[in-house]
Amino acid sequence: MGEPLKICLAASEVAPFAKTGGLADVAGALPKALLALGHRVVVIMPRYQMVDVERHRLRRLGVTIDVPIAERIEQAELLEGALDGGVPIYFIEKPSYYDRPALYGTPEGDYPDNAERFIFFSRGVVEAIKALGLNPDVLHCNDWQTGLTPVYLKTVYGEDPALAGVATVFSVHNLGYQGLFWHLDMPLTGLGWEIYTIDGIEFYDKINFLKGGLMFADVLNTVSETYAKEIQTEEFGHRLDGVLRRRSADLFGIVNGIDYGVWNPAGDPHLAATYSPEDLSGKAVCKQALQREMGLPEKATVPLVGIVSRLAAQKGLDLVVEAMERLMALGLQLAILGSGEAVYHEALSEVAERYPKQLGLALAFDEGLAHRIEAGADMFLMPSRYEPCGLNQLYSLKYGTIPIVRATGGLQDTIVNYSAARDTGTGFKFRSYSERAMVQALQRACEAYADQRAWRRLMERAMAQDFSWDASARAYEALYRRAVVQAAAGR
Ligand code: ADP
After folding, report:
1. Domain containing 328 — which CATH number?
2. What are phi and psi of 344, to 5 degrees?
3. In this structure, are 232 and 361 located in the same domain?
4. I need a surface site. Which of 91, 123, 162, 195 has the fewest CB within 10 A?
5. What is the rounded distance in angstroms from the CA atom of residue 336 to the CA atom of residue 445?
6. To 10 degrees, the CA torsion angle through 13, 19, 21, 22?
7. What pLDDT digit, counting tens, does each position of 36-57 carry?
8. Cα–ligand 1 centroid distance for 335 (angstroms)
């Protein structure tokens, strides 16, 4: 075991306070699991408009931080709240940056001042650590929004005695989002131009915040072993594969856990009925309720396929749109919940109009409906182009909703392909990113579904899988200890 660690996790979104994707789930759940292992953990995030002070009972600390931005000093106030289970979470309140309807932008595009907003956050994290006297052993940063934090620690704050012992871990939750900004934003960072080089944060004539984390943190990780390997290849590397290969010895893969306190059909408050592996009768109730909610005919024996997704190129929705005719010919129903890029909103609305009896569509971000789809569907489709970890396939397993996934990243690592002959597996996998391969996988699933007894055993196997945070939190603990050793060696 070893001594308890003092850990500070910084993230731009943390469930249940603010969420656009999997990062929030991780940032909300990992700290609790680390606390359970005996560590001292705190979290830092921005205070967005949607973070309700009253509802979350946040406390103003009367502490302000001064954050240099370009030639100015901008002030922010710190608030304190807690994650369930008691992990303290600090919010950096700066209304001019964060008091907006969304986290990063609207369907039409990103907020134009995102560079400044997340330079402020990346540096604000360091200032908050100092102002609160946190003195962590490890600072765990996540994705491009905190990519500059390790850069600040190693440069501007390199000699600061209050931060001398701090090791940094940088997690990549999605390499496709790098925080790219034009070079004229460089003065906003307060970093010297010597950092704007190929060995620093320069990237094809732009500033790359994510690259900052990759170059300057002591230890790196991503959210599955397969994705850790994939991102070192040209195909999945988003032009950072060279950087990642160089840091290969410091790069690890740790699959995300899931929070069974939130995602468990036995006690899920969002559902029409709860159920468990011992008594699955509630699942049929959930299916009927979902069909009604999505405007689909209430038929018990038609396979109902769910999708809950950000609508972005990564998620493979183009395959779904292209294959719609062939999917519908399989006689199944589709329940799709998604929000994101306008092109997918349009394409999906168009097909939904053509197949009103088979396709239910909700273009929204709706936590409750996400739970109801997990529970009500028979199968869950994730045809991702790439998938760092993926959480929905793990929720699906718990809800006895059989995942149909493309064999990439975390989907490859967490789902075992079904074999009817051997009566093994937990889902249906396909390899090639093609309409044909996806439709074939769905066809196999529909055939298996027709054998209700075999399907029941498949559901039971799926529901018995354990992806709780405990094992992953232990892997993070080992990673943190490694970072501490490496940081000490580097000094
Ligand atoms: P990513 O982080 O790439 O979006 P993940 O599978 O890791 O993908 O995590 C997605 C998370 O966001 C899941 O918890 C999923 O339920 C949730 N989610 C995605 N889209 C929606 C939506 N439209 N409404 C509600 N929840 C959503």
Report:
1. 3.40.50.2000
2. -75, -35
3. no
4. 162
5. 18
6. 60
7. 999 999 999 999 999 999 999 9
8. 15
